[in-house]
Amino acid sequence: MKHKSFRLKIIIRILCLTGGGALVTNGYLTHNPVLLVAGLVLIIVGSIAIFTLFQSVNRKTAFFFDAIRNEDTTLTFPEKVPDKSVRLLHQSMNRVNERIKLWKRQMAYKERFYQELIEHSATGLVVFDDAGYVELLNSTAKYYMGLHPKSNLKLLQQRSAVLHGLLLSLSPGKTETVRILVNDELCFLSVSLTIIKFENKNFRIYSLKNIRQELDEKELDSWQKLIRVLTHEIMNSLAPVTSIAQSLRDIWKDKADNAGQMSYSEAVDTTIGGLEVIGERGEGLIRFVKSYRMLSRIPEPNIEKVSVKNLFERIKMYNA
User: Does residue 308 fall inside a structural domain?
Assistant: First the structure.
C-alpha cells in the first residue's frame, strides 16, 4: 500500500467498501453470519482507511494555511515522496510558499525605500492618530516640532503654542503659514493637512515646509525691482535739471566775462524759465517719492458717522 499511487489507494478503499457491502447483503439474504461479519469488517476497515487518507491531506493543508495566516514561510513539504498525487500537492504548496516569500521581500524593500524617502525629505512629515499620538515622524518634522515617535500632540504646546494652535485649527486641504523660532532660527512654515482613514481609524497627515528662503528671494527680487524703478525715475528727473543748470551757469559766466551773445534781460528770462523747469522736475520727483512712501505706511483713518440701518440694507441687497 505504501508504494501505490493516491488514486489506487482510493480505488482499493472503495473496493473494500463495495465488497463489504456485497458480503453484508449476501450474508443477510442467505442468513450467513460469517459473510455478514466479514462484510461489516470490510466496510469498517475501508471507511477508516478513506478517513485516514483524507485526514492526512486535510491536516497538511490546514498546517499550510495556518502558517500563511501566521506569516510563517519556513514551513516546507517534502517533494521526494512515492505518491505522485501527494508529491504534486507538496510541490504546489511549496511554490505558493516561495511566492509569498518573494512578496514579503518585495514589500519589505518597498517599505524600507519609502521610509528612507520620507526620512530624507526636506519637507517635514508627521502623522497623528485619533488620540493625537505620533504614528510617523521624519527628522525634518522632529526638528521643527521637537516631538518624538509615540509622543502626543499636546507636548507641542510647550514648545510652540502658535504652531500647536495652527495644527488644531487647520482644515483638510488648506495651507497656512506660521512664523516660529527654532533653535534661534526664524522659520516661516507652510503647513498643510490631509486626513486618511485606514482600518477604521482617522490619521491626520501634516506637511511642514520652511519657505523662508523663497520669501527672502522674493523680497530681494522686489527690492531689486524697486531700486531699478527708483533709479530710472530719479535719473529721468535729474538729467534735465543737470543740463539746465549747466546751461544757466554758462550763460552767466559769459555775462560775467562780457562775452555773451545774449542781452541782460534775455539772460534773466532764460534763467527764470530754466528755474521753472527745475522746480517742476523737483516737484515731480517729490510726488514720485511720496507715492512710494505711501506703500509702506498705513494711511490715517478717515473717521465718519455711518448709518447702521443703511449699512445692513446694503448688505442684505448684496446677498439677495
Answer: no
Q: What is the pLDDT of residues 117-171, one digit of tens each?
A: 888 888 888 999 888 898 889 988 888 888 888 888 888 888 888 888 888 888 8
Q: Is the pTM higher than 0.90?
A: no
Domain boundary (60, 80, 105) is at 105
CA distance 164 to 155: 9
Q: Label residue 86 exposed, middle or buried (CB < 10 Å: 0-12, 13-18, 19+).
A: buried
CB of 178 closer than 8 Å to CB of 162: yes
In a domain, 281, yes or no: yes
Domain that includes residue 142, residue range: 121-210
CA-to-CA distance for 175 and 51, rounded, in angstroms? 67
Residue with cell 534773466: 268
Q: Which residues is 45 bridged to in the sheet?
A: none
Q: At what angle do helices 212-256 and 264-295 cross, to 10 degrees?
A: 170
